[in-house]
């Protein structure tokens, strides 16, 4: 009995030794062979996971993308403004009341002084006229339209080719009136000396009425 137990134990030890030696003699090829496959699998997974990131990095953001080009505006939508002619230079001029002296004239005449420009030439002009007390101007017309300001006295002003004291309009100092070109008119310094200032655009001329058969501004 003891021999049988010893043999059983011996054969069991030999079998264990054989099995252990067979496993020990085998190289661990399977783990070493599987390792590269796992590494490659991990690398491929990393490459696939990195691909969208790289694509996102290479794609520029919307703010940096080139905006669509707008059609060029035509010159018709932006017309060129008209050219404004240059204003001619005006000479600076200063006259005090004591600097304005009327020239001496014959009795009954109305002296006139030119303050600016020249009534005989083209362009703006300003004149000042002294009408002595009691003067009645002959009805007349002007070639240019005028504006008149009464500076002193009362200017009795009337229209027509015949002087009519009943048709005059008293224009006191500070009054303003116009004299349209070709309209017959007259002035009466009834109450004292009158000074008027005239502004117009020349050339100017004066003719006595009636002119060319004109009467009261109408042809007969």
Question: What radius of gyration results from the CA coordinates?
Answer: 60 Å
Q: Which CATH first-tier class of the domain at 106-208 would you pick?
A: Mainly Beta
Q: Fraction of residues in helices?
A: 10-25%
The strand line-up of the biggest sheet is 1-2-9-4-7
CATH superfamily of the domain at 106-208: Jelly Rolls
Here the CATH topology of the domain at 106-208 equals Jelly Rolls
N-C termini distance:
180 Å
Number of strands: 10
Order of SSEs: HHEEEEEEEEEE
SSE-based structural type: alpha+beta
| Gross CATH architecture of the domain at 106-208 | Sandwich
Assembly state (oligomeric): single chain
Overall pLDDT metric: 76
Number of helices: 2
- Largest sheet data: 5 strands, antiparallel
**Low-confidence sequence ranges:** 27-33, 213-220
Shape: rod-shaped
User: In percent terms, what proportion of residues is strand?
Assistant: 15-25%
Describe the structure.
The protein is of the alpha+beta class. The protein has a domain at 106-208: Jelly Rolls (Sandwich), CATH 2.60.120.10. Helix content is 25%, strand content 24%. The protein is built from two helices and ten strands. It has helices at residues 2-25, 29-58, and strands at residues 112-116, 123-131, 140-142, 146-152, 155-159, 169-171, 176-179, 185-188, 194-202, 206-208. The strands form three sheets. It has a five-stranded antiparallel β-sheet with strand order 1-2-9-4-7, with no helix packed on it. A three-stranded antiparallel β-sheet has the order 6-5-8, with no helix packed on it. Strands 3-10 form a two-stranded antiparallel sheet. A hairpin with a 6-residue loop joins strand 1 (112-116) and strand 2 (123-131). The protein is rod-shaped. The N and C termini lie far apart (180 Å). Residues 27-33 and 213-220 have low confidence and may be disordered.
